[in-house]
Structure formats: structure tokens, C-alpha cells
Write a structure and sequence with these properties.
The chain has 71 residues and is an alpha+beta fold. It has 3 helices and 2 strands; from the N terminus they run H-E-H-E-H. The radius of gyration is 12 Å and the shape is globular.
Length: 71
């Protein structure tokens, strides 16, 4: 997650949508400029994605997984 967030330094806003992770993802995200969005419990991927999208206030949105980086 650290490498992913570091690769997003160009972004005006970073939202980390957390669906109850049990690792240290939230702590890692808090060390950056990212906003943490706790998601409500649901097994539906699309509902989680839409919940995250509803929190976006910028013109452009980029969804990226925590194991990916922008180059």
C-alpha cells in the first residue's frame, strides 16, 4: 500500500476505501495525505465501489488496487 500511495503524489485527493481490513492499511494511509473512508459491511463489490465513488468530489476518478502503482 505504501508504494501505491507514494505513486499517487500527483493526485489532489486520495481516498482509501477500507472495508474492515485487519492489517495495518489504515495506519499506512494515515501517514499520507489520504482520507480514510470506512465502508459499510457488505459482500457486494459494486456496492463498495459505489460507496467509494459517492465520496469523490473531484472531476476525475482513478480506482487503483493497493498492490498497483502508477508509473
Amino acid at each position: 500500500l505504501s508504494a501505491c500511495l507514494d505513486s499517487l503524489s500527483f493526485a489532489d485527493t486520495i481516498i482509501v476505501a477500507d472495508d474492515g481490513s485487519s492489517d495495518n492499511s489504515v495506519e499506512i494511509a494515515k501517514r499520507t495525505k489520504a482520507k480514510i473512508l470506512p465502508l459499510t459491511a457488505t459482500s457486494s463489490f459494486s456496492k463498495k465501489r459505489n460507496q467509494a465513488l459517492a465520496a469523490v468530489t473531484t472531476q476525475w476518478t482513478l480506482f487503483i488496487d493497493s498492490d498497483e502503482v502508477v508509473t
